[in-house]
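Fold it.
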Amino acid sequence: MKEGDTVRNLWSYSSLFLLFLVLFFYFTSTNDHLHSSGHPAVEIPEGVEVPEVKVSVDQLADGSWLLQVDKKNFTFTPELAGSSVIDFQKGHGHIYINGVKINRLYGEYYNLELPKGNNAVKVALVLNNHQRILYQDDEISDQVEVHVSS
């Protein structure tokens, strides 16, 4: 192989690698599922009844933790998860512990595993397409602090 061929091959590989990096950073920066902020949000329009959510967490006799969700103007619809049809009063919840999403919520109760120490337990209501719901720029969610000693 000649020295000129080696330089051309190196230039070609470098160009391809640079193109790959540019495309990689472009697609990862524009994909909402890859951002720490989570899913995109949508504002509830005027005239639509605003959903409400209230969260409580209690320790049961067996030592486990039970999350209970009370909601108004909102129906859990697990059979429609992933649907692109927007209905501001149908969807599911996202459960967060200390800012980390742990699971989806399709009903009123969920058994939690909580680490020792202080824990922020949050439920955010989302549409079937996973968009977070906002009303006047505030997320439709509730959060409680739970201390686990043992």
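The chain is about 20% helix and 45% strand.
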